[in-house]
């Protein structure tokens, strides 16, 4: 049986699903509800497989499967985007939202079928439930999607299958099944979009910053796959291998990624980037301020490691120490959201590429900085970093950036949504930067009443809710573009449900919470 925390987590997810579809009930709502119900039952099978070691790949051992909370995220995002773009009369992005929702449902259904297929003895009732849910989804897709859209959905599913087999084999214990669905599903969708846009380049169609995101994400993934295969046959820790790493990075960057981006934006990528970054005086001031914050974050890392050297080699950074970086990230993102969201968009993409590249250097022990990074970052490890990669800082960046990247600018008049939708770009700041940080700091220092079956406290959750409400009030004061139109009750419900989810989920909250809060704000 599922334990109590998983049951409560499932109840919270169902509450979010029902809240969303109470606002936007249509034919896709039946599909989303059917998907959520079958994912809840299949979660039993995945958890049993993980406990018995019967899963095909090695998943993160400190978390449950997380299938239900992960399964509904992409479909709900697609449905929310469809409704927003339908209200704005943008047919292209309305259809795009339908494709996103259909793709998310099909990928989640595929993971469910895998779990049911490898469970012994075959769970008859769960098989029937999965079949019913699959029939509803496929029937709806048949009557909703055009032939080209069906092909696009199947392309993403095929990429997801192959990418899962490769990355889950190469990176054992880095993901739970739910996290793998979100991360690999997202990469699969980005790769398919990049291929599609590269084959159908129309000058003037699409914004350069969107192409920059697609190429950067796929570029660093290709780079990682290339070096992973290469270093199977040679020792990555030697100077010769390190020189080859740096040389091939330059070759792939200048010979593949830059021409690819040039084909999409029709101008020199380096000149475009420099012109974009230093276009206005405000951008120069923001970049200077962000450089100072980055230096401060590096200073914290060096200071904490100096304390470890002087005190004890077993010294580990405390929860409060790790939350310093959350405060720095909030201080980074809030001015960008208020003064220049496009600059924040591009800067976050650059930062993601740098983080992943540095993780490659650490993982492969590339000289001269590989061993140093291993030593410095080991201080900040927690139970979620059980695999060969350290991903928590990358998840933090993703959680803050995804609401900015996924914000439907084309469906928002003057770049701003109405009502609670105006807070969509702030979803990462509220859920992770404010809510999760306050819950951890106050819960670990003053919390006494624990939620049943978890280490999280009632005081921490309540503090997180109040802190986010105060943050919303401050956003209203300092960001004149935000107009909530009396949607305060919906904001309170959204913040409360996501804070409760933080208390009970064992998935990576930095990734999951901002997506759920964004969904709630968008509808």
From TrEMBL:
Its EC number is 2.7.1.108. The lineage of its organism: Eukaryota, Metazoa, Chordata, Craniata, Vertebrata. The keyword Transmembrane helix applies. It is an enzyme of class 2 (transferase). Belongs to the polyprenol kinase family. Keywords: Endoplasmic reticulum, Kinase, Membrane, Transferase, Transmembrane, Transmembrane helix. It is found in: Endoplasmic reticulum membrane. The chain crosses the membrane at residues 12-41, 61-80, 92-116, 122-141, 153-171, 211-233, 240-262, 282-303, 324-339, 345-365, 386-406, 426-446, 458-478, 490-517. Its main location: endoplasmic reticulum. It is a multi-pass membrane protein. It comes from Odontophorus gujanensis (marbled wood quail). The keyword Electron transport does not apply. One of its GO terms (cellular component) is endoplasmic reticulum membrane. GO terms for molecular function: dolichol kinase activity. One of its GO terms (biological process) is dolichyl monophosphate biosynthetic process. This is dolichol kinase. It comes from the Eukaryota. PANTHER family: DOLICHOL KINASE (PTHR13205:SF15), TRANSMEMBRANE PROTEIN 15-RELATED (PTHR13205).
């Amino acid at each position: 049986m599922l334990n109590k925390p998983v049951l409560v987590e499932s109840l919270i997810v169902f509450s979010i699903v029902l809240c969303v579809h109470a606002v936007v009930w249509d034919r896709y709502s039946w599909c989303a509800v059917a998907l959520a119900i079958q994912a809840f039952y299949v979660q039993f099978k995945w958890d049993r497989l993980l406990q018995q070691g019967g899963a095909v790949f090695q998943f993160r051992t400190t978390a449950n499967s997380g299938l239900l909370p992960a399964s509904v995220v992409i479909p709900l995002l697609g449905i929310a985007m469809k409704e927003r773009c339908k209200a704005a009369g943008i047919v292209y992005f309305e259809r795009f939202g339908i494709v996103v929702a259909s793709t998310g449902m099909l990928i989640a259904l595929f993971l469910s079928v895998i779990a049911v297929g490898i469970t012994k003895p075959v769970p008859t009732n769960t098989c029937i439930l999965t079949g019913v849910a699959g029939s509803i989804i496929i029937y709806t897709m048949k009557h909703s999607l055009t032939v080209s859209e069906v092909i696009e959905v199947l392309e993403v599913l095929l990429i997801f299958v192959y990418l899962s087999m490769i990355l889950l084999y190469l990176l054992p214990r880095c993901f739970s099944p739910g996290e793998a669905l979100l991360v690999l599903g997202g990469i699969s969708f980005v790769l398919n979009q990049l291929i599609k846009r590269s084959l159908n380049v129309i000058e003037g169609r699409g914004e350069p910053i969107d192409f920059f995101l697609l190429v950067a994400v796929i570029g660093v993934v290709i780079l990682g796959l290339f070096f992973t295969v290469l270093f199977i046959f040679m020792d990555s820790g030697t100077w010769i291998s390190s020189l080859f790493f740096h040389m091939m990075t330059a070759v792939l960057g200048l010979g593949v990624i830059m021409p690819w981006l040039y084909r999409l934006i029709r101008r020199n990528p380096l000149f475009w980037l420099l012109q974009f970054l230093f276009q206005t005086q405000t951008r120069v001031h923001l970049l200077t301020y962000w450089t100072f914050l980055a230096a401060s974050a590096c200073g914290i890392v060096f200071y904490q490691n100096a304390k470890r050297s002087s005190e004890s080699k077993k010294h580990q950074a405390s929860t409060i120490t790790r939350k310093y970086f959350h405060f720095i990230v909030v201080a980074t993102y809030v001015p960008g959201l208020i003064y220049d969201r496009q600059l924040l968009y591009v800067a976050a993409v650059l930062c993601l590429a740098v983080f992943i590249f540095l993780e490659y250097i650490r993982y492969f022990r590339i000289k001269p900085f590989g061993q140093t990074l291993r030593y410095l970052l080991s201080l900040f490890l927690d139970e979620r970093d059980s695999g060969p990669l350290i991903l928590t800082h990358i998840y933090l960046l993703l959680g803050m950036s995804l609401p900015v990247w996924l914000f439907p600018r084309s469906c928002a008049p003057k770049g701003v949504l109405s009502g609670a939708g105006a807070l969509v770009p702030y979803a990462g700041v509220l859920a992770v930067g404010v809510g999760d940080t306050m819950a951890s700091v106050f819960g670990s220092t003053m919390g006494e009443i624990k939620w049943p079956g978890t280490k999280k406290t009632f005081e921490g959750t309540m503090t997180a809710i109040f802190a986010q409400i105060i943050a919303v009030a401050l956003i209203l004061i300092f960001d004149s573009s935000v107009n909530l139109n009396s949607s305060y009750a919906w904001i309170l419900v959204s913040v409360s449900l996501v804070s409760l989810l933080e208390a009970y989920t064992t998935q990576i909250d930095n990734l999951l919470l901002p997506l759920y809060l964004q969904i709630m704000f968008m509808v």
